[in-house]
Write a structure and sequence with these properties.
By secondary structure, this protein is α+β, with helices and mostly antiparallel strands. The protein folds into two domains: about 300 residues, Catalase HpII,  Chain A, domain 1; about 60 residues, no CATH class. About 25% of the residues lie in helices and about 15% in strands. It contains twelve helices and twelve strands. The strands form two sheets. Strands 2, 3, 4, 5, 6, 7, 8, 9, 10 and 11 form a ten-stranded antiparallel sheet that branches. Strands 1-12 form a two-stranded antiparallel sheet. α4 packs parallel to α9. The mean pLDDT is about 90.
């Protein structure tokens, strides 16, 4: 084989490590000094015009969030300050990999993004319908999405590309097991859960920080389509999920979700046996049980799809006082990547569009830019500090300091990481019928993939659970004696 060329930046500088982001210590956070990561994300966000690169097709609706339980011991955020308080929301559901014209019922994770219009600014909860994701290091995000999109040679989706990436990325196994199980194809947006997936933080009036994961549990119950039902609907009604959500709200059958939070005291993260900031892992409920927070209801359809659903822009960095991010490497990158994508896709003044505009006063020194459509703050000063009464920063809203340690380096995120136990636990939680459907879905998706990739992926399934790996191998007509590395597993 021809020796591969050395990978470089766009400026031709050789790249030493394309697998691990630059972080402060092995658990992060990601450093802005990682110009390589920034270049990859910025270039990736500009690969399509004007459609979203991911989450292109979706549906949305307005509603309310109502507080039902007191969590003020964890946070001073005003939207949670009293039971019964209501906050207006806008929710956008979406498929992840499909383009704008794709069918709603494909096997794909679903986006579950909620914009809370709070009195102290917008809170954007940018989640999915799964509690984990395929990767834990943002340097691999564009590579992952490329593998799920279209083959540059044929212009078609490629099972070989997908399974090649997954088989070379064992951290993806947990999410792959979710994806090919029953919940990989929700029956509707109303019949699926939502999760923050990432670890975020809350902080209270005393300056105490807590790490949290958000859960949105559907009150309609979980319902899913089989592969056969989904395929039929893709042909009969590619917009089935859009129609279902719209029709339900129009007839007054307003969908609801109960909102919960898992809470981990800041200090416990240092000694917890799992990395609590690893996006490929869940926190066991026996250690950190769900605590009810409120109810989310959708009760009003948008009046114009483009203006409200297509131009809706969500940012995980939109966190009102009392809420914060975490050292989750993927989240750290999304804090930058999401607004960067919006500035490119719908313009630098995207936050002033009606669907994105906060319901509280906005005071910034942002001026001008493409498609500025308001008064541009007239003759008010456009710099700070100034002597003319312009808005000023206020230390009362400062987030508690975050202690970090470790040398800045590109740490191997796979070294010493258990990527199999939780995937195996998920498999073992399934009923016999669910396991059979999972294996059948995987076998169908892997049929025709080069044998070397099949063998490599079967090793991962087997390490999660021997029955899991043996079942996939049998379905593909592969004897376990052919699979390398099993004896050593």
């Amino acid at each position: 084989m021809k020796k591969p060329a050395v990978m470089t930046t766009a400026a031709g500088v050789p790249i030493a490590d394309n697998q691990n982001s630059l972080t402060a210590g092995p658990r992060g956070p990601v450093l802005m000094a990682d110009y390589q990561l920034m270049e990859k994300m910025a270039h990736f966000n500009r690969e399509r015009v004007p459609e979203r690169v991911v989450h292109a097709k979706g549906a949305g609706a307005y509603g309310t969030f109502t507080v039902t339980k007191d969590i003020t011991r964890y946070t001073c955020a005003k939207l949670f300050e009293k039971i019964g308080k209501q906050t207006e929301v806008f929710v956008r559901f979406s498929t992840v990999a499909g383009e704008l014209g794709s069918a709603d019922t494909v096997r794909d994770p679903r986006g579950f993004a909620v914009k809370f219009y709070t009195e102290e600014g917008n809170w954007d909860m940018t989640g999915n319908n799964t509690p984990v994701f395929f990767i834990r290091d943002p340097l691999k995000f564009s590579d992952f999405i490329h593998s799920q999109k279209r083959d540059p040679a044929t212009g078609r989706r490629s099972a070989t590309m997908q399974w090649d990436f997954w088989s070379l990325s064992p951290e993806s196994l947990h999410q792959v097991t979710w994806l090919f199980g029953d919940r990989g194809i929700p029956a509707s947006y109303r019949h699926m859960n939502g999760y923050s997936s990432h670890t975020f933080s809350l902080w209270n009036a005393k300056g105490e920080r807590f790490w949290v994961k958000w859960h949105f549990k559907t009150q309609q119950g979980i319902r899913c389509f089989t592969e056969e039902e989904a395929t039929r609907l893709a042909g009969e009604n590619p917009d089935f999920h859009r129609q279902d959500l719209w029709d339900a709200i129009e007839r007054g059958d307003c969908p609801k979700w109960t909102v919960y939070v898992q809470v981990m005291p800041e200090k416990e993260a240092e000694t917890y046996y799992l990395n609590p900031f690893d996006l490929t892992k869940v926190w066991p409920h026996k250690d950190y049980p769900l605590q009810e927070v409120g109810v989310l209801e959708l009760n009003r359809n948008p009046q114009n799809y483009f203006a409200e659903v297509e131009q809706a822009a969500f940012e995980p960095a939109n966190l009102p006082p009392g809420m914060g991010a975490s050292p989750d490497k993927m989240l750290q990158a999304r804090l930058l990547s999401y607004p960067d994508a919006h500035r490119y896709r719908i313009g630098v003044n995207y936050a002033a569009l009606p669907v994105n505009k906060p319901r509280c006063p906005v005071h910034t020194y942002h001026r001008d830019g493409h498609m500025r459509f308001d008064g541009n703050d007239g003759g008010a000063p456009n710099y700070q500090p100034n002597s003319f009464g312009g808005p000023v920063d206020d230390a009362r809203y400062k987030e508690p300091p975050l202690k970090i340690s470790g040398d800045a380096d590109r740490y191997d995120h796979r070294a010493g990481n258990d990527d199999y136990t939780q995937a195996g636990n998920l498999y073992r939680l399934m009923s016999r019928e669910e396991r059979e459907r999972l294996i059948g879905n995987i076998v169908a998706a892997m049929t025709g993939v080069p044998r070397a990739i099949q063998l490599r992926q079967i090793v991962h399934f087997f390490r999660a659970d021997p029955e899991y790996g043996t079942g996939v191998a049998s379905g593909l007509g592969i004897r376990m004696a052919e699979v390398p590395g099993i004896k050593a597993a």
